[in-house]
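Working notes for the structural subgroup meeting. M.R. asked for a predicted model of this chain before we commit to crystallization trials. I am recording the input and output together here so anyone reviewing the notebook later can reproduce the run.

Input as submitted:
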Amino acid sequence: MLSIAWAPLYAHPLPANHRFPMLKYELLPEQLIREGTVPESAFFRPVPPPDDVVLRTHDADYYQRLQRGGLTRQEERATGFPWSPELIEREVTILGGTIACVHRALEHGVALNIAGGTHHAFRDRGEGFCLLNDQATAANYLLGHPELGVSRILIIDLDVHQGNGTAAIFAQEPRVFTFSMHGARNYPHRKEYSDLDLPLPDHTDDAAYLTLLRNTLPRLLQEHQPDFVFYLSGVDVLATDKLGHLALTREGCRQRDQYVLQTCRQHQLPVVVCMGGGYSVRIADIVEAHANTFRVAADIWG
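Returned structure, recorded in token form:
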């Protein structure tokens, strides 16, 4: 059975332009339960991690200012969110969900977060709707607990936007390999350097995308020899996405997820999946594409 982190904290007041993207966090669990992909018991409510866990990744000054509302106007504007205590509670709970998923993935092979993938957060600042980097923090948590048996980590970032914060955080950490396959002209305009970046031209379709992925991932596994995987499965690669500029169909996106997750299963690699972005005009396109990730995981892990 799948194990899924879900923190229903998304109903706090937000400006109108932020409300639509947040709907998916409520609609997706409802869809998965209603259609029978997972039972309600598959979901667990995460809790915020201790401060020392966060501070293995994020600077103390930034984290303290974030908690008390001490960001400058420029810093707050860069995040894309107006500060509120509820927003910070949401962010640290999402981060706690990804860390909790680590333990469940080690036990069951896979665990998923109905959120996360906040890959634009740097050690000392937030950007692009990302305040704290959940996958980076969870990776450092693993490395800081050698008794868990993980010494080499692969982060597969297939969101349409480059994982610039994650790349910067692990730029000097050889135990974590960062792989980002993203739109070449998408945000951020100033890219960082992942261990492997594959920038894609506008209008890249299913065939080109999947061929490149299938030609790349086996080589990364062979060369890096990871014993744990974080997968960021953003659905902003869809042709219907307002911000993406790529041309994948929903079926192509599903095949992407199936290939990544099946490859992890075949190599007996525990994997934590986080949702990342999705900004199609129709909320149904976003929810269905994200639901496919969970359906594929349910099929593979039974």
